Amino acid sequence: MSFIRTILAASPLTASTLAASALALAASATMASAADPQTAAWGNVGGWQIRVDRTMGNGCFALQAYRDGTGVRLGFNMSRKIVYLLFGNPNWRSIEAGKLYRLDFVFDDTARYSGDLRGVQFGDYVFLDGDNLSYNFTRDFMQRSTLRISYRGAQISYLSLHNTYAALSEVIHCQQEMAGGGSQYRNTANPFSGASPGRVDPFSR
Asked: Which helix (H) or strand (E) is 175 found in, with range?
């Protein structure tokens, strides 16, 4: 399974949830046509795919694959009543499942957050899982223009947040529809190696 296929399909929770959520979405242009029984397409907004995950209490989520290989998924886990963030990059092969990584997030070089994200194994890759995101973090993810992510003082990813407001607004709308009883889905380098700045896999050190 490809990296992007894996990250777009993974349920970012416990090992038991991951085992029960062996999803398979296609990458790039083929992602929207994936027919895995555990997820369903809701729509596309500004380059972000909006989907529903049955293994997370019919939680809606947005996902995006960036040119540098980084994949991002943010959405609702309605079974646990939380908002989660799952992301990774195929170069970050030094991330260890179960290990916590302290990351710094800076939106538009102004709003700053720090948090421990856990490595989660799924398929051939280990992703970074952030559970129970705060309201402020989620708001900034929607409203800001860029996100800089750093590990041990070194930047590991710099992401455009273009269209995130529209995308996550649609995720919220999707979740409201699901909560209202709607059952029809609409179709519409590795920093965790610990290496020094500039290396492909900073998490190797």
From this structure: helix 164-179
Domain 3-184, classified CATH 2.60.40.1880, yes or no: yes
Could you tell me which of 46, 59, 42 has the C-alpha nearest to residue 187?
Answer: 42
* Domain extents in the chain: 3-184
Give the pLDDT confidence of 168-185 residue by residue, as tens digits: 999 999 999 998 865 444
CA-based R_g, the chain, Å: 16
Contact (Cβ atoms closer than 8 angstroms) between residue 161 and residue 141: yes
Sequence-ordered list of residues with C-beta below 8 angstroms from that of 148, at least 6 positions apart, any chain: 105, 106, 107, 109, 155, 157, 158, 159
Helix (H) / strand (E) element for 20: namely helix 15-20
Summarised one tens digit per residue, pLDDT across range 22-66 is 222 323 222 233 335 688 899 999 999 999 999 899 999 999 999
In the three-class reduction of DSSP (H, G, I as helix; E, B as strand; rest coil), residue 65 is classed as strand
